Amino acid sequence: MTESLFERAKSEHVKWSKDWQLPEEVTFALAARHGLEAEKIIHAALVLRARHRDPEEWMWCAEALHAIEETMCLSLKDFYLRRTHLILSREDHGRPFVKAIAQVMGERLGWDSNRQLAEINALQNQLAWELAATISS
């Protein structure tokens, strides 16, 4: 993404916010991470708004769908650690969104409830390991 496209995306986010009645923080965060592709993410995932009332949860679920479709993201750990760095972007490491994201990913990837639970457990184990390694260093 060029600097001019990035600047355009940052200015477009206000329009997206108004058009789809989303908080500007949500549209700005998407624009900052995805540039003009943010509009595509919003369009493709508007249906998630009905299920996920928290705008930030909605945003992360929408990004999970985008990661599956555009970057071949196939696991919850991959999404949290590589595709979005959600694990680092929030003080709570994105824990409040784990179940919702696992459910959305599971629906798209055909995971049953056991697979969703296994994905959540794998992420939690990785998070515990990452935090232990950080603290002991």
What is the strand and helix layout of this fold?
Layout: H1 3-20, H2 24-34, H3 37-45, H4 48-51, H5 55-71, H6 76-83, H7 86-89, H8 98-109, H9 113-136
Task: Explain what the structure shows.
The chain is mainly alpha-helical. It has helices at residues 3-20, 24-34, 37-45, 48-51, 55-71, 76-83, 86-89, 98-109, 113-136. The chain folds into two domains: 1-46; 53-137, no CATH class. It is globular. Helices cover 78% and strands 0% of the residues. The protein contains nine helices and no strands. The model has no long low-confidence stretch (mean pLDDT 88).
Poorly predicted spans = none
Share of helical residues: over 70%
Q: Output the structural class.
A: mainly alpha
Number of domains: 2
Binned strand content: under 5%
Question: What gross morphology would you assign?
Answer: globular
Tally of alpha and pi helices: 9
Span between termini = 35 Å
Number of strands: 0
Radius of gyration, rounded? 15 Å
How is the main sheet built?
none
Structural descriptors:
137 residues, mainly alpha, 9 helices
Briefly summarize what is shown.
With 137 residues, the protein is an all-alpha fold.
